[in-house]
Amino acid sequence: MAKPKRIYLAGPEVFFPASEHQLIVAEKKRLLREHGFEGVDPLDTKLTFSDGQPKPDRGHRIYKANRELMDSCDAIIANLTPFRGISGDPGTVYEVGYMIGQGKPAFGFTLDSRHYRERAGATDLDNMSHTIEDFELSDNLMLEGGICESGGQLFLAEQPGEHPFFSAALFDRCVQALTYALSR
Fold it and tell me: For the chain, how many structural domains are there in total?
């Protein structure tokens, strides 16, 4: 039997309380299993740290472990719901770019269906007189363009999810599109 394709699960959930994170990730992995995939969460690493290990060293070890997980995966599904700002979590955005740079398809979802410009204040200039891009896209043109060019798609919520940062129905739409993309 062939090994299932591994899908990296990027998103801000890693910052949620452990029980909340585990519930969301368990549902993502369940939906992926239903389609014959294996979900890989950034917290699936078995890292341990000594009490005296400097925090920057810990951060670099986490980065390397997550990069190794991404290297072992065939595609990414990223939660790009705005987190601590008007766009997705910056680590998640990096992970999407990293996977695209490897030629792997990237899919994403957001529970905020507003255009990027609207989230940025719906004006031509920000409070520092810097231009706000207006391409009627859901996120920054580089992020959304990269996802599309990778063969993926960014899915927008049509209704609220069961959690402010998760909708099983929306995630399942990503998985269905990923199934189709990887079968071609």
Answer: 1
Count Cβ atoms below 10 Å from residue 159 Cβ, excluding itself.
Answer: 9
Distance CA 85, CA 81 (A): 10
Considering the domain boundaries, does residue 106 fall inside one?
yes
Q: Which residues of 113-130 are buried (b: 16+ CB within 10 A; e: fewer)?
A: eebbbbbbeeeeeeeeee
| The two three-digit tokens of residue 24, written as one number | 């969301």
Three-class SS state of 78: strand
Encode pLDDT of 18-72 as tens digits: 999 999 999 999 999 999 999 999 999 989 999 899 999 999 999 999 999 999 9
Q: Is residue 1 part of a domain?
A: no
**pTM score of the predicted model:** 0.96
Cα(131)–Cα(128) distance, rounded to whole angstroms? Answer: 9
Backbone angles phi, psi at 81, to 5 degrees: -60, 130
Give the integer Cα–Cα distance in Å for 123 and 182: 39
Q: Domain limits at 141?
A: 6-183
CATH number reported for the structural domain that contains residue 144 in this entry = 3.40.50.450
